[in-house]
Amino acid sequence: MSRYVREKQAAGRRDAHLPIVPPAKPVALAKDRGQFSTKSVTPRDLVGPYTLQRIAQRCCPDERFKNLRGCRDGVRTTEQGGGRAGLHYVPSEGRAFWSGLCTCGSAWICPPCAEAIWNYRQTELGQALKKHRGAGGRVLFITLTASHHHDDLGVMLDALIKAVGKVYTGGAFTRFKKSLGYIGSIRGVEVTWSYEHGWHPHFHVLWFLGALTSGQLAEVTAYVDTAWRAALVTLGLSGSEKHACKVRDTSWTIEEYMTKMGKQKPWDADAELTMGNRKHGRRGGFSPQDLLRIAGGLQRVPKLSARRAGFLYHEYACATQGHQSFRWSPGLRELLGMGAAKKDEAIAAAEDIEHEAEVDELLPANVQVASFSPAAYHVVTANDARGELVAELVACRGDVHQLRTFLDALGLRCSWRDGMVWAEAP
User: Fold this and answer.
1) Which residue has the higher pLDDT, 286 or 180?
2) Residue 180: which pLDDT band, with cuts at 50, 70 and 90?
3) CB 386 within 8 A of CB 16
4) Strand, helix or coil at 24?
5) What pLDDT does residue 113 have?
6) I need a labelling partner for 177 at 20 to 30 A (CA). Which of 42, 307, 339, 417 fits?
7) Distance between CA atoms of residues 65 and 69, nearest Å
8) What is each CA distance from 207 to 217, 295, 326, 374, 406, in whole angstroms?
9) 294 within 8 A of 309, measured Cβ to Cβ
10) CA distance 7 to 15
11) What's the predicted TM-score (pTM) here?
């Protein structure tokens, strides 16, 4: 019996009746919104981070997830007191985001925070790849996994993390580093679930090396495969020779992921490493966000009920809590000139700081188009319109006049101030 099942039983019957239900419908608005441009946005686009966040909150009602329950539901108080929420548009990327909100900073289970964190991570990785390749270095993309087991996800994840650590220890690795010019690595974690195999945690790792010949590339592949499968055996796991370890050059693009994610540009290793919890599952597998869609009644699949999908997401949340979703090896950032590392919590909050792009080159320039008092923002959340406002702003390409029409429909008192819409409660 897994430790998470034991915890649920010890806590009584509360978790046995998690309220896995579709999100409540928005409160009726003052005007019909059918005329607005969100009608041109695809249904999958409208099932955005904020809709999924509401479902995640219902799946994880435990006290341990209290930060998730309050994430982005209120305006953050400033040192001067008070505080306002802002709505920003990024012209270069065609996206929008909120600022000035209280955030939980979870890259695992909070879709809006994960969106901000992984967008930042992807940009950061893109710069690292560009710098290393520009200096003549080679970057290899390595996928590490184990044979599927219907075991507790937490136990499996702990064991696999230990196995990854064993790859970087011992005399064999020391000799390997010297002979092949190993510089460092970056590791990301992806977790999926399927009917046939249950949980499938696996690691995507970038290895930064010097210039390699084709013969040396084969040597790297042989070392990693041997070291990884040996590490699995020491922890009571196993991996097939065909699937346990895959080593690839990172100069490729991944068309199938482009199709699934609706991306307009080719994928490089930066995208593959950072999109694990947002990708749609392959070969019958489900990503964490797939489980949320099913738990919320937004997606229906055979044999997997909304209630069971909710339980699975709760298990995923428990198992990943406290683990790093993304990790640079010591010293690599300095060697690549990337500066000090940021924690997930800081990245989630960074996008919520006005003018942050002026001091952090990894955050693109943005334009604040609206400012909301705490009471006005409460009207937005009461109508469950956070995601719709973001979608509306993207659809109208930052047109503040069309955005104001939307805010008027919410019944907010709007005025023009400092070149933006200033919204107050009715």
Assistant:
1) 286
2) confident
3) no
4) coil
5) 92
6) 339
7) 7
8) 12, 37, 14, 46, 48
9) yes
10) 10
11) 0.80
